[in-house]
């Protein structure tokens, strides 16, 4: 009974968060700019589908046996076939997407914001991602299904990598759409490495990816609100 009380609110938390975000934060259909305020719709419903799905998948783990079985099967396969695999590469690769943005700043590549604004957005997204991730770990630490393999929910490395990848995407998508997705390649590699290192399960990696993307979208939404309200 105690576990069921934990499972019910936890399972629907990501879904409710995504749903509420789309209702509270989605902008009406208006021109691209109104009084110099860009209507970029960072939190429109369609933009929340992918991160919301990833978070919902991880949140439903206690209620859906299939998610638990897939996590266990993947981990068992890696333990059997790659028992000695270990690398610290993820510790460094997770910073590649956000670091790439500053590299482009140094090369004077045109992006949506300036170097100073990049610093603010980067720092803000780190705070939001870290805060929400910490809250998720507090919620799940007493739920057995999330702790039986000695891992933690969600994957912090993956969240940080996708946080940076989403920043890179937002900054480049209007000028170089193909290049804007390049950060997701590095972020995906981080998620795979965390699984092969036996540090995280698939559901934890997917939840981390969703957390990183959603936190960055929320950061941009807040940044625009504060920036243009101050004018």
Commentary on this structure:
The structure is a single chain. The protein is mainly α and 231 residues long. The protein has ten helices and two strands. It has helices at 2-25, 49-59, 65-81, 89-93, 96-106, 115-140, 156-172, 177-180, 182-196, 202-229, and strands at 33-34, 37-38. The radius of gyration is 18 Å and the shape is globular. The N and C termini lie far apart (54 Å).
Entry keywords:
single chain; 231 residues; mainly alpha
Q: Roughly what percent helix?
A: 55-70%
Multimerization state: single chain
What is the number of helices? 10
Which sequence of SSEs, written as H and E, runs from N to C?
HEEHHHHHHHHH
Q: How do the strands of the widest beta sheet line up side by side?
A: 1-2
Radius of gyration: 18 Å
The coarse overall form would be globular
Task: Give me the secondary-structure category.
Answer: mainly alpha
Biggest beta sheet summary: 2 strands, antiparallel
Uncertain segments are 1-35
pLDDT average, as an integer? 86
Please indicate the percent range of residues in DSSP E strands (runs of 2 or more). under 5%
End-to-end span in angstroms?
54 Å
Q: How many beta strands in the DSSP annotation?
A: 2
Number of domains: 1
